[in-house]
TrEMBL record:
Residues 4-64 form the HTH tetR-type domain. PANTHER family: HTH-TYPE TRANSCRIPTIONAL REGULATOR RUTR, REGULATORY PROTEIN. Residues 27-46 bind DNA. One of its GO terms (molecular function) is DNA binding. Pfam families: TetR_N. It comes from the Bacteria. This is Transcriptional regulator, TetR family. InterPro entries: DNA-bd_HTH_TetR-type_CS (IPR023772), Homeodomain-like_sf (IPR009057), HTH-type_TetR-like_transc_reg (IPR050109), HTH_TetR (IPR001647). Keywords: DNA-binding.
């Protein structure tokens, strides 16, 4: 196994174990053993279990952002653009259930330091903030503090994806799909939106 393959094996194994056993119950030795690498190899790539968790969180957030960024459009209709983005985000979650379970467990967990969560929100997902700021400027979105709106939207995304992961057939039903976006949009919009 080459170095990149070993590093990826460590990340894939950590993802599975963190989701199935929890962060604190998962040892670095168990990650190394299941990944088929020496413990020293794990520490060569990640100096600590916390560093491994942070890297995993950031890399999955980046994968998520890259996947849904293809849905970011500037059609001139902010609501329509937000809807495309919302649907793409939930579709990614449905297509990547293990990674979404990881987000369900750790996105708001104290296991992920605040600065790592802020990096994910303000750097990797900065296009979301830009969309919200555009909505403020157009008078379509309420003028709430941006960071509060971002966290609220994130919570709504986690709730919606939890629902659709638990009820997979509902995502294909237009009434449920459309209602999920309407609840998301209505939480942010002004009376004009």
């Amino acid at each position: 196994m080459s170095k990149p393959d070993k590093k990826q094996a460590i990340l894939d194994t950590a993802l599975t174990l963190f989701v199935s056993q929890g962060f604190y119950a998962t040892s670095t030795a168990s990650i190394a053993k299941k990944a088929g690498v020496a413990t020293g190899t794990l520490f060569h790539h990640f100096p600590s279990k916390d560093e491994l968790m942070n890297h995993l969180f950031i890399s999955i957030k980046q994968e998520f952002a890259d996947a849904i960024l293809t849905s970011v459009t500037d059609s001139g209709n902010l609501k329509q653009d937000a809807q495309h983005l919302w649907y793409a985000a939930i579709q990614w979650a449905i297509e990547n259930p293990l990674k979404q379970e990881f987000f369900q467990q750790y996105s708001m967990s104290p296991s992920i330091p605040l600065e790592i969560r802020e990096q994910a929100m303000n750097s990797i997902l900065s296009f979301m903030g830009a969309l919200m700021q555009k909505g403020h400027a157009l008078g379509l979105l309420a003028d709430y503090p941006l960071s509060l709106m971002q966290d609220n939207c994130h919570g709504q995304f986690l709730a919606a994806t939890r629902y659709f992961l638990d009820n997979p057939g509902k995502w294909q039903e237009p009434t449920h799909k459309e209602a999920s976006f309407a609840m998301f949009w209505n939480a942010m919009r002004t009376d004009n939106g």
